[in-house]
């Protein structure tokens, strides 16, 4: 499973200045190459749709530019048509497009460029749209309305423009993105695209967290629920780094992890808790401990064991590990309980780990390796872990990272 916006202002959009920097340098640097490709393509008779082939020139081997589309003096009116570009030479008119396009003309003008499927063109369009939106709440809301009925390719472009614009952080824009993402009349794939934008936010308000949590744990949310869970986790990380605020997010992720009917969603929610690397209080520790005995998925129990290594009370978590190990029958879950004992309590975990190795002799060699490393004076868990002869002695880490 992996995957990895807003309203129109009343003022007429300003003409954007010609960009400076890497994007235009890249665009202009690609002209010569694409022009050469155009010459080769014309050799096969492909001159691009509805364009007159340019007359050959003497001198350097480059294609003569076709007549550039006339830039409108103002917002496109009903009688104006969008400019048409050759599929092979669309970069010829990039600078004129860049200087003359407005939010009103962007959608029509971008269509032939979008159809080229050139990754550099697509990257440019996303950045240019974000620039046109800027911090204007109204423009972001307008592009979100475009996205509601857009084709898949346009939808990705419009949402990328919104995500890259400062206006995404405006309260009305956030609420509109959330409303669209939670709109039951819309298909889940498109809802997921809206909800994915939320991961760019610096924080989520309590009411917003409640709405997203309710949706994410809904059995009918599907992939959109998974994306919502990821968004909560990523905003948590951002908010924690800026303000130290983590508990509201951890509580909601734990709720999703314990109540969702979708195993990938439960796994992701608990994995996101792990990435926060935040100490767990006694109540959270006990809730996770219960999951070690009630959770049906072996993979989810492994990530629960990892989460528990962050418990504030080291003695409490060692007791939880020991009891769970005695009743656990899955090798990989036992391996998680064994190795995360050292992560939770360091050298103090050795007696518990020794007993685990007596219960399951498959861990005898692992215990001896870890005991030897601690005896050498190493105390850091990462150094212990990477000092082992193998980080996957039992074939359990195919889908998980330590």
TrEMBL record:
Domain of life the protein comes from: Bacteria
Name the segments for region: Disordered: 1-23, 43-85
Protein known as? HEAT repeat domain-containing protein
Which organism is this entry from? Answer: Melittangium boletus DSM 14713
